[in-house]
Design brief:
Elements: E1 3-12, E2 15-25, E3 30-34, H1 41-49, E4 56-61, E5 64-65, E6 73-76, H2 88-92, H3 94-98, H4 105-114, H5 130-142, E7 148-152, H6 160-177, E8 180-185, H7 188-194, E9 197-202, E10 207-213, H8 221-225, H9 228-238
Parallel strand pairs: 3-8, 3-9, 6-7, 7-8
Antiparallel strand pairs: 1-2, 1-4, 4-5, 9-10
GO molecular function: ATP binding; ATP hydrolysis activity
Keywords: ATP-binding, Nucleotide-binding, Transport
InterPro entries: AAA+_ATPase, ABC_transporter-like_ATP-bd, ABC_transporter-like_CS, ABC_transporter_ATP-bind, P-loop_NTPase
């Protein structure tokens, strides 16, 4: 499903946060909102989920205008928010349990294996590493059966090695998810490594300043580290130095 955002603006009494934010995301695309801290990245996700009410502009999924909460979106925050007293299996099925939906145990077990969690279905969160906890939280988000996944710096609290491992894992499995993904991050390397497109959010109030398209299908750490020129361009764009050499 295609997501279209047009002229989205948000203000508080003492401050304008967003002004005329417009972009679209195609079905199955992985798009990253990249910006410095406080640039309004997470605010856009809050507007999409309906946590924050939009003031002006439109949000459409295909031809349906979204007002408030929508089942088209599933949101994953930076904190895993796992229920410590529940097993991994019960945590990933939380959406189905809350909505009294039947649980296909065989399907869930297959997904646990895909997410590298085979054998952990009866474990409790305090028995897992930080990376494993994030996999559980991500699978819980995927099993919400939404069309569009909203990932709000999901690896931000992890150490650098675990974060890199999680990026490798997400890059490997994203094609199997059949989902549209919007990632919020301030990590340039993460954005380059994972994205089909990068949208630079900047200015006060914030708006989309520039887009970067990445067409390579096969990526590696060596490919990432060889993209110094692109990284430099994005860095200067984030700093507002658009004319830098």
């Amino acid at each position: 499903m295609k997501l279209t955002i047009k002229d989205l603006s948000l203000s508080y009494p003492q401050r304008k946060i967003l002004e005329h934010v417009s972009f679209s995301v195609k079905t199955g695309e992985f798009v990253t909102l990249l910006g410095t801290s406080g640039s309004g990245k997470s605010t856009i996700l809050n507007l999409l989920t309906g946590i924050t009410q939009k003031q002006t502009g439109t949000i459409k999924v295909d031809h349906e205008e979204i007002q408030g909460l929508s089942l088209h979106f599933a949101y994953m925050p930076q904190e895993d928010l796992l229920l410590e007293w529940e097993t991994v299996f019960d945590n990933v099925c939380l959406y189905q349990r809350i909505h009294h939906q039947p649980i296909d145990a065989a399907f869930v077990m297959k997904q646990l294996a895909l997410f590298g969690l085979k054998g952990y279905e009866k474990a409790y969160p305090n028995e897992l590493s930080g990376g494993m906890r994030q996999r559980v939280a991500f699978l819980r988000t995927v099993l919400c059966d939404a069309d569009i996944l909203l990932l709000d710096e999901p690896f931000g609290a992890l150490d650098v090695i675990t974060r890199g491992d999680m990026q490798d894992w997400l890059h490997e499995i994203r094609g199997k998810l059949n989902k549209t993904i919007i990632l919020v991050t301030h990590d340039i390397d993460e954005a380059i490594y994972l994205s089909d497109r990068i949208l630079i959010l900047g200015g006060k109030p914030a708006s989309i300043q520039k887009e970067f398209h990445l067409t390579e299908q096969v990526r590696s750490r060596e490919w990432l580290y060889a993209n110094g020129a692109l990284r430099n361009d994005i860095y200067h764009e984030l700093k507002g130095e658009t004319n830098a050499d």
